[in-house]
C-alpha cells in the first residue's frame, strides 16, 4: 500500500499544504498574505487570522490536486515551530483535529529541518554526510546531516538572520516588503563599490545585527552630505549589501566544510533563492571540488512540500507525535 501523507505549514504568513505519496510530491499549494506588504513586515495577529481563513481551502485544494481523499491518508504532518505562536496554533490545532478524526498518526516537523529536507525532493539528491546551510528571514544555520533524521547544528545566528538583514536594509532604503528579491534584482544593475564590515564572530556562528547598524550609519551619513544619495546610488548600494551578506555566508560555509571534511554541500531556505548566493555556491563548489545542491525556487521559500518530504522519512522511522503536541515558537534542532 502506498504511503499517503498530508503536510501542513503555517509557521509565519504563508498557509501551505502538500500531499506526498510514497516519497513523491503530488501537490504543493501555498496561500500568500500580500496584506503584510503595506506594513513593511509580517504582523503576527493579521497572519494568524488569515491562516484561519486560508487553511481549509488550501488543504482542500492540495488534496484535490493530488487526487487523494482524506479518508485514504496514512498520516498528518505539521510544522510545530519555530515560528509565530498565533500562526503555529492554527496549523497545529487543525492537524491534531484531523489526525484524531481520521484516527491516523500525527507527525511533528521542525521548520529548520524541513528547509534542509527540501534538498531531497528532486534529483539529483545529496549523499550523506551533507553540509547544509539554511538561510531565511528567521534563521541562519549550518548543519551536518548524517541521515534524514540525524542532523547536528554546528553554527547558528546569534541575533538577526540573513533574510532579516536584507529586509531591514530594504526598509531603510525605502523598498517594498519583502525587500530581499528587490535587492537581488537591483544588485544586477549596480556594482559593489561600497564596503561594509564583516562581523567578527567566532567559530561557525553568525551575526547580522552589526552589519545592519553599519548600513544604517552609512546611509545616514551619506544622506546628510547629499539628500538624494540613496536614489542616485540605489543599485550600487544593493549590490554592495548583497555582496557582503553573501560573502559572510560563504566564508562560514567554506570554514565549516574544511572543519568537517565534507564535500557534499548545499544551501536551502528562502535566501537560497538569491541569485548572488546561488552563483557563489556553484563557483566555490567548482573551486574546491564540492558537489553542490540547491532546491528549486518553489521549495526555497516557506512551502509544505518540504514538510511532506520530511514527514515521509519520519513515517518510515515511525517517529510519531502525541496528540498533546503544542506549538514551539522557539523550536530548535
Can you walk through the features of this model?
With 333 residues, the protein is of the alpha/beta class. It folds into two domains: 4-116 and 300-316, ATPase, nucleotide binding domain (Nucleotidyltransferase, domain 5); 126-294, ATPase, nucleotide binding domain (Nucleotidyltransferase, domain 5). The chain has helices spanning 44-66, 85-102, 111-117, 162-172, 180-187, 209-225, 229-260, 275-288, 305-316, and strands spanning 4-9, 15-21, 24-31, 75-81, 106-110, 130-135, 140-147, 150-156, 264-268, 291-293. The chain has a five-stranded mixed sheet, sandwiched between helices. Strands 8-7-6-9-10 form a five-stranded mixed sheet, with helices on both faces. Strand 1 (4-9) and strand 2 (15-21) form a beta hairpin. Helix 1 (44-66) packs parallel to helix 2 (85-102), helix 4 runs antiparallel to helix 7 and helix 7 (229-260) packs parallel to helix 8. The longest helix has 32 residues, at 229-260. It is globular. The model has no long low-confidence stretch (mean pLDDT 95).
Amino acid at each position: 500500500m502506498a504511503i499517503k501523507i498530508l503536510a501542513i505549514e503555517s509557521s509565519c504568513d504563508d498557509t501551505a499544504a502538500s500531499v506526498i505519496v510514497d516519497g513523491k510530491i503530488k501537490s504543493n499549494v501555498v496561500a500568500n498574505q500580500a496584506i503584510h506588504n503595506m506594513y513593511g513586515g509580517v504582523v503576527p495577529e493579521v497572519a494568524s487570522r488569515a491562516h484561519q481563513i486560508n487553511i481549509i481551502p488550501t488543504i482542500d485544494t492540495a488534496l484535490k490536486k493530488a487526487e487523494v481523499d482524506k479518508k485514504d491518508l496514512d498520516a498528518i504532518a505539521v510544522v510545530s515551530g519555530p515560528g509565530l505562536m498565533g500562526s503555529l496554533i492554527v496549523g497545529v490545532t487543525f492537524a491534531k483535529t484531523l489526525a484524531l478524526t481520521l484516527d491516523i498518526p500525527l507527525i511533528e516537523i521542525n521548520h529548520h529541518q524541513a528547509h534542509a529536507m527540501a534538498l531531497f525532493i528532486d534529483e539529483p539528491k545529496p549523499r550523506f554526510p551533507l553540509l547544509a546551510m539554511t538561510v531565511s528571514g528567521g534563521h541562519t544555520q549550518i548543519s551536518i546531516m548524517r541521515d534524514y533524521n540525524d542532523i547536528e547544528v554546528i553554527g547558528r545566528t546569534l541575533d538577526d538572520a540573513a533574510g532579516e538583514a536584507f529586509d531591514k536594509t530594504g526598509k531603510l532604503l525605502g523598498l517594498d516588503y519583502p525587500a530581499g528579491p528587490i535587492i537581488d534584482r537591483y544588485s544586477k544593475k549596480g556594482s559593489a563599490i561600497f564596503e561594509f564590515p564583516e562581523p567578527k564572530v567566532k567559530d561557525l556562528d553568525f551575526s547580522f545585527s552589526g552589519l545592519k547598524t553599519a548600513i544604517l550609519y552609512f546611509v545616514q551619513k551619506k544622506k546628510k552630505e547629499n539628500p538624494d544619495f540613496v536614489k542616485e546610488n540605489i543599485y550600487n548600494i544593493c549590490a554592495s549589501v548583497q555582496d557582503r551578506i553573501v560573502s559572510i555566508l560563504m566564508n562560514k560555509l567554506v570554514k565549516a566544510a574544511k572543519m568537517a571534511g565534507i564535500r557534499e554541500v548545499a544551501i536551502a531556505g528562502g535566501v537560497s533563492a538569491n541569485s548572488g548566493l546561488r552563483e557563489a555556491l556553484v563557483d566555490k563548489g567548482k573551486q574546491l571540488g564540492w558537489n553542490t545542491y540547491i532546491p528549486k525556487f518553489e521549495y526555497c521559500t516557506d512551502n509544505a512540500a518540504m514538510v511532506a518530504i520530511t514527514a515521509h522519512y519520519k513515517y518510515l522511522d515511525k517517529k510519531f507525535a502525541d496528540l498533546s503536541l503544542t506549538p514551539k515558537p522557539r523550536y530548535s534542532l
